[in-house]
Structures are given as structure tokens and as C-alpha cells.
Amino acid sequence: MDKVVATALEAVADVPDGASVAVGGFGLSGVPNVLIQALYERGVAGLSVVSNNCGAMESGLAVLLAAGRIARVTGSYIGGNKEFARQYLSGELEVEMIPQGTLAERLRAGGAGIPAFYTPAGVGTQVAEGGLPWRYDGEGGVALASPPKEVREFEGAEYVLEHGIRTDFALVRAAKGDRHGNLVFNKSARNFNPLSAMAGRITIAEVEELVEPGELDPDAVHLPGIFVQRVIALTPRQAADKRIEQRTVSAPATEKTVSE
Hints:
- By secondary structure, the protein is α/β, with parallel strands linked by helices.
- It is built from 8 helices and 13 strands.
- The strands form 3 sheets. Strands 1, 2, 3, 4, 10, 11, 12 and 13 form an 8-stranded mixed beta sheet that branches. Strands 5-9-8 form a 3-stranded antiparallel beta sheet.
- The protein is globular and about 50 Å long.
- It starts with 7 loop residues before the first helix and ends in a 20-residue tail after the last helix.
């Protein structure tokens, strides 16, 4: 039952080239940076990544992307990642863009053993009709397009069929975790982490604080250990390494002089 692994390199030692990997995080929040760096150091390539986005500010999955280690991305947001956009438009990277809520449910469904489900999101668009560019040919043309999806009517409304997602591995980050793999996430860092963990056949969690079994209040556990196979404890320095993607500072208030 003790799922703790000594190092991140040991935790990802069996991730092969060409593996599919679900990765938690949203922007810079809740990203398993230490495990991603371990994959980079191992030289793993040809990865099919499932994640909301593909890293930002030269961190997270952007490390693997810039090194040319990612072959395919299933996600919902490109954002300000210029290298992501460049590789996609040049035909170097295959990209399946999915509505964000649909991506979340596809991960959850896969982890719950649900092979497919119907959703109204995407009905009447290329999401359902097909034709979305998955890969460009590098000259402005489309080399590979998305196929059409089944659409059915329920109670007078149309819904599109989406399939659950299962991946070979999943990498997630949690605020707390015990040796049995039970995880607690902190506020917005919860994001796609529990869903990605559910979708992975082998899920590896990096935790900012490792506690002993029984120390976590069962009612506070966000993800039960049944979904987690390996846990690594971060050092205090690794746990504190958190960047801010968009720093917004309010202008100082103008002091008014009151004269009589």
C-alpha cells in the first residue's frame, strides 16, 4: 500500500517513447513540473499529451514541446504559447482541440469506465460535423482533419457523441498526499488534476506535503488513492516554486488633500 517512490526519475522510469500521458494543471496552476522535468531528462519523445493547455512561460509541458518531444496534443487552449502555435501551423504537431467542458468530461468518463456520452456542446459546428484541422501540411493546407461524429436527438434536442479518454500514464500535482495515494488539491490547483489522474492507467502524483495514512480527513480527500499508483514528495524548494502567469497590480490610490 506504500506508493511512495524516492525520486521523480524513478517514478517515470517506465514511460516509453510514444506513450499517451494525461497531465493536470491549468495555465501555471497545479502543473506537475517536477515530473515533467524528469520526462525531459529521460529523453522520452513522441508523446501524445492530453491536457488543457501545453505549458506557458517556458514551464510545464512547454519544456517538452520546445524540445520536440510531443507528437500530439489533445487540449482546449493554445493561449499565448507561441511555440505551440508555430509547431501546429507548420505541421510539426498534431492537435485535437476540444471544448473545455467536453475535455473535462471525457477524462472523467474514461476514468469512471464510461466509454462514451452525449453532450450538446459542439452540435452544429465542426466539432460534430468534422473538418477541424488536426494537422497542417506546413503550406497552409490541412493534412489531417477531424472526422464527423455521431449526432442523436433526445427529447427534441441534438447531442453529439464523445468518447471517454484513457491514457497510458497521468502526471498530477497535489497540495497533500498520503502514502496510500489519497490526494488533496489546493483551490484552483484542483482544476484538471483529479480528472487527469482518473484517466491514467498508471497515475503518478507529486505532492507538496506528504503525510502518513490516517492524517487526512476522509471528507477532505478530493481523489481517493485507488486512482493513484505512485507518489513522490517534493522538497520544500520544489513545493514553493510557483510562478504567476499574469501579474496584475492595481494603481496606487490618489491621496486627496482636504483644505478648509
